[in-house]
Structures are given as C-alpha cells and as structure tokens.
Amino acid sequence: MNKIFIILFLVINNFFLLITPAFSEDNKIRIGLLVPLTGEDAEIGKQIIKATRLALSDISSNKIEILPKDTNSDPNKTLRSAIELRQQGINLIIGPVFYKNLIYLDEIKDVIFLSLTNKTLDLPKNVISTGINSISQLNTINKFLRENKINKTILLIPNLNYDQEIENGIKKSKIKNFKQYFYDTEPTKLTKQIEEITNYEIRKQNLFDEITRLENSDDPNKKAKIKNLEKKYTIGNVNFDAVIISDFDESLKSVITSLLYTDISPKEKYFITLNQWFDESLLTDTASHPIYYPSINKKNFKQFEKKFAAEFNENPNHLSLLSYDLVGLIYYLSLKNTLSDLDKAFKSKNSFKGKIGIFDIENNKINHRLNFYRVEDGLLKEIF
Questions:
Q1: CATH code at 149?
Q2: Which residues contact 57 (CB under 8 A, 6 or more apart)?
Q3: CA 280 – CA 272 distance, rounded (Å)
C-alpha cells in the first residue's frame, strides 16, 4: 500500500473512531464480483479473486465482504449470476471482466457494475468502465506532446474493432494531431499504405534525381557527395514530427518495420504508442528505439507483483492489480458516503490514489492519470 494512501487511511480511520460509524456491524459493504471461474478464462478470474483477498487483507477492515460469482465469459451466465447477487441485496459489483459480457446488464437497473473493460462506448447506463481506456492514454500522450512542443503529429489507427474507441479518445483528450490514417493490418497492404503516408516513392526518386544531377555536374566534390548519398535510401523530409501508433504486439512491430523501411527513423521522429503493459520484447527491439508509451505506475506494479507472488506463489496479471485497486477505491468512497448513497459517489467528482495511479471519477466515468515511459538502449525510463 503506498504511503499517501496509508496516511489517508489512518487519518480517516482514527476520525471514524470518534463518531458513529457509517455502517453497523450487521450492515457490511457487500460487493459482488463477476469473474470467469470456469471455461478458458478461469485462471484470470481466480487471480482476480486472489487480488481482492489481498486488498481486503491490506485494508484490514471487517466492513467489506466480497461475494464472487462465475460468468464463464458468457453474457447469459453473467446475467444470471448478476441477478443472483442482486437477490442477495448487492447493488455494487466489480466486473464483469470482458466487454462482451455487458450486453444484458442494463436489465438490472439498480445495480452498478465496475467492469474491468477499457472500452467506453455503448456501455449500459449502469456500467462504469474502469480499465485503462483510450482517453486516459491519449490524455497522457497529449501532455508529452505539449511539454515537448510537438505540433505536427500523425495518428496511425488499425482498421479493427477498437478504432472508434481511439477516435473517441482523440476527441475527449483534445489531442491536436496533424492527420489520421487508418491502415490494414495485412503486412503487404500495410507497407504500401505506409509508403503512401510517408511519400516514400517521391523521396526515393528525389535521391535518384540528386545522384543523377551530381553525376552530370562539374562539382569537384561530386564523387564524395555521391558516395555519401548512396548510403541513404531517400531525400526529403516528411510533414510530421511524431507518429502515434495505436497498436500492440506483433502488429505494432509490423507498423514500425514499415516505417523503418520507408526511411522514417525513431532517432529523427518521435515514435509513440499506446499502453504496452511493459512488454519486455520492446526492450530488445533496438531498431525501434526510442519509443514512448503511457502506462500505469511501474514501481507500484512491481511491488504488487512481489507481494502477490509471496502470498500465492504466482505472478499476477494486470487485471489483478486493477481489481485490487477497485476494492480500495470502494472502501475509500464508503468512508465518505453511506451505503445507500455509494452509487452517488461515482457521479461526484473524486480522486483516489491506488497502485495503478490516480483514478479520476466524475459522472459515472473513471479515467486514470498515467505515467509516461521511453524505451531506449534496452532500458525503460520514466519520463513523468
């Protein structure tokens, strides 16, 4: 538990010893937990349960009780389990994990669901997305662009099912970009599109023309100049200073490879991407260095990993850290609100510092203040 939260907890806890508690002993904060406990995603669900147990242990309060239910990563099973929790008097539920399991939850009007999804569009009105969404990520990128006075930025967005989320993040974050391009993830088509975006053929022809001009000139230093030009692939600049690549894993690397092929170097233009969850393969791909991305607080995550591993003898996934923080968030809000008014806390403007970082809460929305990192020479460095 971080130092700020410990101080906050001790101050509030001591204060509550002096007044009538918000909840009686028989009126606990009962939180539902909708996670996959069967099926192919069962291990994810089991880790989330362990993380919530760890959170309860750290909070050290008997005011909270968590009741897990299985979703089997199935929307119909999710609805049935949610109804069972509601019948037990629960009106606040952490979960479900996946966006696909949200579709029927608007049938349970008087329950709030804190879903671990990072998608924000087309959510049922009673679902709050708590994942690291595109708005949070692009807010952080925008901060970096402003601080470095980078004005000419292009955004590369894959034609996949999250492209609307990216566009929404661009709009909400008010990031100033030069142009947006949507690309096909199929490698051959992708390379062709990157060539067009970077005017590769024109710049390549510029190089050929300059070599030809020198060969036909009377320049006394033409041999040295031609030899120097022959080391290049193109001549001429592109009309952007930074490129934001909205992609992950091998697809991200394909885009970077295409940019390198078209003679766009990360040494000359900023290569920025979305949250990569500290993907270690980026450390070894030195051709793409430096590359920048927003993410959660790595120091806190490493501390959580160590604590989780010591307790359960396994490494946690990122959703475990999020669910750990959500238990702390609910407890923090419960100290300021009665149990019946806890739903109103998500409409009011609040901030909470967890292991991930700072949660900003307002109007049934949660955004995260993220850190920003640079990967270079095999090392990850925190920028802010």
A1: 3.40.50.2300
A2: none
A3: 16
Q: Which domain holds residue 75?
A: 3-131+298-367
Among 279, 295, 311, the domain boundary falls at: 295
- pLDDT tens across 301-356, in order? 999 999 999 999 999 999 999 999 999 999 988 887 776 677 778 888 889 999 99
Q: Residue 310: name the closest of 56, 54, 58, 42 by CA.
A: 54
Q: For the chain, what is the mean pLDDT?
A: 90
Report yes or no on 270 lying in a domain.
yes
Query: Which segments of the chain have a pLDDT < 70?
Result: 1-27, 339-340
Number of structural domains (the chain) is 2
d(CA 100, CA 86) in angstroms, rounded, equals: 20
Q: Is 382 contained in some domain?
A: no
Residue 366: closest CA among 346, 381, 338, 344: 346
Beta strands at 350-353 and 358-362: parallel, antiparallel or unpaired: antiparallel
Residues 85 and 41 in one domain: yes
User: In three state form, how does the secondary structure of 36-84 look?
Assistant: CCCCCCHHHHHHHHHHHHHHHHHHCCCCEEEEEEECCCCHHHHHHHHHH
Residues 360 and 251 in one domain: no
Nearest to 156 by CA among 192, 121, 201, 197: 197
Domain assignment present for residue 230? The answer is no
Residue 378 is assigned to a structural domain of this protein: no
pTM summary value: 0.88
Can you read off the two tokens belonging to residue 305?
A: 């990993």
Instruction: Indicate if 193 and 252 belong to the same structural domain.
Output: yes
pLDDT per residue over 71-111, tens digit each?
A: 999 999 999 999 999 999 999 999 999 999 999 999 998 99
Can you read off the two tokens belonging to residue 95?
């979960």
